[in-house]
Amino acid sequence: MDVLWDTVPATSDGVTVREVADALAGRELAYTTVMTVLDRLAGKGMVQRERAGRAWRYRAAASREAHIAQLMLDALDLGGSRDAALVRFARSVTGTEADVLRAALAAEAAMTPGADGPGVGDDGEQRHRQHGDHRRSDPAGSGALTDRVAPPADRASRPDRAGEAAER
């Protein structure tokens, strides 16, 4: 998938098995192995393929980001308290990652007509009973949500991953 995501623009006609095999030349994979993997990925809907003469051309069915987002949503659907999992996730991200999430939620709220923001109804109350959630709005009125899930113990000691990436 990395070869398709990294080398094939979404507007492209895709790549052939030979082109993928050539991109993976350092891994010494047989042509038939690459072909089998691409065919299986097509069968699972992860890649799209179209006939181009005698060969098939492959491209990713979704962007890397869309795929990762879907994996995260699938994980939330595994069971248990979806909202507790979201709170746990929110408490485990770095400050920079939290800023990215806040900006994305604000942009989404701005694009939704008549919405006061994500999860906020006309009466200003948080909508978190949808999934049987036990959270409630913070009594201090800060808009923060309370939950029984504790933040990860190592959160304070985690370096900001965005800073690490900038140093590399």
UniProtKB/TrEMBL annotation:
Top-level taxon in the UniProt lineage: Bacteria
Keywords: DNA-binding, Transcription, Transcription regulation
Residue numbers spanned by region Disordered: 112-168
Positions with biased composition (Basic and acidic residues): 155-168
Keyword hit for Iron-sulfur: no
Keyword Magnesium tagged: no
Pfam families: Penicillinase_R (PF03965)
An annotated Gene Ontology molecular function: DNA binding
Family in the record: Belongs to the BlaI transcriptional regulatory family.
Protein name: BlaI/MecI/CopY family transcriptional regulator
